[in-house]
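Structure (tokenized):
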């Protein structure tokens, strides 16, 4: 029996990504993104590029909404009717009710459906989906895939560098005075995701020191397992800062993967709402 992987758009896998990969085993369900009185389906009628255009044009942050149980139930029903088993991979249950929606939806099915909380989001969730698709290609069944994912997610390491504190201020996560001081001192926060929650690792003075701190985090994790999926991403309209980081950390990739072959994608609305443009992120499986 074939296996269908269902995930949510917080993985930042777009329809264009699916088309480019030519992988029929993946379904992505969109979260909602609301700017003012207009609501979009993330990655469906709102591209990542248009999201950032709207983000920088407005003064207020958008609202993101979880995937509801009905959407999961419809996608699972379609797969089961086609004779497929299902593995659902969601963003962290501590960051969104999307995981709870998936669990609610599975109650309507007697078997063959498994839900895995990625305990991550954006690039961290994405590499777990990539690994799941690899296991589908190897012929594993849904139960074995779900078990493997729950083990593998513990080895995922995500590090990110924010270019600005402005969007954390807008979201009420830090006071205006802290954002103003951070701007004055060119503070660049470095973050990670620990047990499904975003955590501050440190604060660097300037982009160069921030990029160095990212590299230190890779080394502190014990290095990258290049036999597993890795992912780089940037938030905003250009990837200049990410390309600079890749070049500055050339020693990490040399002998493992050509710089031009590193997978680079964009951070979407779920995290982009809070970090704003200019942020960069790396997700990998630890050795």
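Design, position by position:
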């Amino acid at each position: 029996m074939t296996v269908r992987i269902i995930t949510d758009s917080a993985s930042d896998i777009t329809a264009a990504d699916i088309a480019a990969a030519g992988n029929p085993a993946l379904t992505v369900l969109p979260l909602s993104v609301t700017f003012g009185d207009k609501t979009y389906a993330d990655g469906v009628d709102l591209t990542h590029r248009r999201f950032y255009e709207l983000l920088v044009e407005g003064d207020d942050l958008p609202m993101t909404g979880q995937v509801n149980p009905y959407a999961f139930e419809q996608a699972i029903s379609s797969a089961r009717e086609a004779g497929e088993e299902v593995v659902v991979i969601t963003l962290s249950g501590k960051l969104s009710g999307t995981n709870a929606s998936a669990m609610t939806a599975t109650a309507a099915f007697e078997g063959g459906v498994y839900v895995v909380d990625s305990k991550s989001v954006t690039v961290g969730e994405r590499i777990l989906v990539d690994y799941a698709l690899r296991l589908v290609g190897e012929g594993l069944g849904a139960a074995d895939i779900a078990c493997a994912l729950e083990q593998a997610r513990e080895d995922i390491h995500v590090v990110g560098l924010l270019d600005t504190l402005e969007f954390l201020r807008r979201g009420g996560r830090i006071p205006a005075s802290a954002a103003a001081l951070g701007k004055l001192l060119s503070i660049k926060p470095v973050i990670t995701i620990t047990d499904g929650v975003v955590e501050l690792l440190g604060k660097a003075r300037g982009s160069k020191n921030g990029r160095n701190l990212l590299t230190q985090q890779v080394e502190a994790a014990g290095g990258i397992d290049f036999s597993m999926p890795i992912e780089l991403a940037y938030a905003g309209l250009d990837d200049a800062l990410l390309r600079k980081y890749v070049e500055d950390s050339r020693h990490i990739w040399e002998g493992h993967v050509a710089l031009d072959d590193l997978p680079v994608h964009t951070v979407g609305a779920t995290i982009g709402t809070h970090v704003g443009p200019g942020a960069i992120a790396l997700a990998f499986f630890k050795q």
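Reviewer-requested clarification: The radius of gyration is 19 Å. Confidence is low (pLDDT under 50) at residues 171-185.
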